């Protein structure tokens, strides 16, 4: 029972008591009046009568009080019933009110939670809206950036990426080779040559390069095409007199199909599979020496020639590859017979150079390679198979018994490149075998000839050690040491004369004695407009000097400094290279011969982004 209900009942009881007292007082007064009147009218009463009368009056008076009390009790009961009904109604109302209060409280709590959740959602929406706005802004900026500065040109379904750099380069040699920025290492003159006593300084922009990469992704496979050219080629009218009009030459031009399975097929003119790569056996990742010299470095094995390459990549970092490549061979012999031939000069209309010799090839060079890419380096191992053919005439003076003779040759090679630290890369390369001289940068001979006119492959080796340092993002330092070797290969003929490469009976007595220019007057007072190689463009050459090369060695040091590099505007860099070159001949009559050269190269290049 609530406090309010108890208070209401107490109030009702108090009111009832007061009413009862009031009624009792009111009933007594009329009774007394009536008795007095009767006493005046009636005769005198006896004591007993009086006593009875008084008793009857008291009883009547008590009955009146009882009746009054009954009435009051009835009224009280009625009021109590009303109060009880009111209390019950109040209790029901209180219960309903409590229920409503509890419902409101629950609703308030739910609303409070909903409001909290709503506030959190609104906060998230605000944050998301801010993020979306930033993303839209960044996307817009990125789109505008790609429109203003595209990484590639879009043509239909192709992406075309230009490739180019523009170079100014110089070369200084203490012994003249009459050469541009590429060095014919095996032509370094012995002291008996007039060119060994004059230096040369040449400027060049011919190593500047232009090209493009074309890529199209069909879904199942990716198609690529690449073309690259420079100006290190000389036409019939090319010279340094005025316009320096040297011709554009093909360096690389190939097409490629790459499957999602890791199989890649490439065909065209490209770097030989023998050439070291930085990743897998992928084209355009060739790991070339950082030299300015366009002939790279002694001991570096390479070719750029037409070929078709097959490669399969595996998920464990291994790649297996094989290629069929254009064959050609370099020949050298002393006291050779005349009853054979191995090729011919280029034929007019055949699109070969009329002043160059071409061998008659029986089969392409076959090259295989396996590579492994690890976190700490790149490793390669491979093999090379070659075939050399001559047509010879055993009867010498007639064609009786004429036949073709084919000789097989080949070798083994390995490359390793290790990142010793974040700032240093160490490399090692070796190629060794028979008939492998053409793949060395010095182009030592592949084959010589036997007395009967059949060919004999020459054993050779090429090796290169490199260290490349990266002390800062702008600066690279490099050092290389390499060598190439060709073995003496001779045979005794029926007349007791040694035939082949570098016979010990060869005369080297004049290799160190300078000679006069050949007799003859200049063909024209106009000098270089006259016939090439005529006086006064005809220095003396050593007499009695075979000088068959035994080995060529080179040491190099230099740096590359990137003055400015920006993915939007490109890169400007300077390079400096110093090399010391040694050419050693096989000993013969009069001993051996030795030639050296000091070379300094400089370069300024701008690479497009």
UniProtKB/TrEMBL annotation:
**Signal sequence range:** 1-22
Give start-end positions of Low complexity composition bias.
Answer: 24-33
Residue numbers spanned by region Disordered = 22-47
Keyword field: Coiled coil, Signal
Q: Which domain of life is it from?
A: Bacteria
Query: Gene3D superfamilies given for it?
Result: 1.20.5.340
List each coiled-coil range: 52-79
Q: What is this protein called?
A: DUF3138 family protein
